[in-house]
Amino acid sequence: MQPKYRRVLLKLSGEALAGGSHQGLDSDTLLRIAGAVKSVREAGVEVAIVNGGGNFWRGLAGSQRGMGRVPADYIGMLATVMNGIAVQDALDRIGVANCLMTAIEMRQLAEPYNQRRALEQLTGGNVVIFGAGTGSPYFSTDTLAALRAAEIGAELVLMGKNGVDGIYDADPRQDRTARRFERLTYQEIISRNLRAIDLTAAVFCWENKIPMAVFDIDQPQNIGRIIAGQPVGTLVEG
After folding, report:
1. Beta strands in the chain (DSSP E)
2. Is 20 inside any structural domain?
3. What is the pTM of this model?
4. Which domain holds residue 212?
5. C-beta of residue 34 within 8 angstroms of C-beta of residue 91
6. Number of domains the chain contains
7. What's the N-to-C CA distance of the chain in angstroms?
8. Per the domain annotation, does 133 fall within a domain?
9. Which residue of 4, 18, 135, 193 is surrounded by the most CB atoms within 10 Å?
10. pLDDT (tens digit per residue) in 134-191
11. Residue 109 belongs to some domain of the structure
């Protein structure tokens, strides 16, 4: 593989780590994703990872059921740490050097997030996993991915979705006539109110000139194909 990008941030939905069950964790799925990360790492690409927590908990859903939004979001942040530990374990099992960092200190499990330390880990060849969200409620893990991508100077955000192979003009799981876009601008996402990604994340990437590829993580080999510059899913730029 001849990589087009040298440093990327991979965003994994929590449901993607659960395999077909959409809840909990699936060991085979974790290993397949870890294997894809190993392949691009061996091609010389520096990789950071942010994962969601929806396979365990969604803060917004908790608040809609009567829980306070702030505690509900903190539970969601802990869910992302659980997933981060699982991703770390999968990378460990196949011999990929890595580091787990969290925005909320829990030193027995991970390093506290530090931008300079994260850059040292990346340039040293380690995959860096970011957990516990931004450390503050009300922010999605899509927004965290955009934030960390800017902080580490990532050249591309890989937005891995569960069972959806890009951005459509309607929900393809509900509308069979939905059309997938091969390319979009951030301005088009915002003006069309396309909800495949968090709009705050879209604005942040737009302002910081970070392209984003939205693709189906159920086929982990897509990671390498996108990094090689192949047309997969939907590419968002400009």
Report:
1. 7-12, 46-51, 98-102, 111-112, 127-131, 156-161, 167-168, 180-181, 183-185, 212-216, 234-237
2. yes
3. 0.94
4. 7-237
5. yes
6. 1
7. 26
8. yes
9. 18
10. 999 999 999 999 999 999 999 999 999 888 899 999 888 888 899 999 999 999 999 9
11. yes
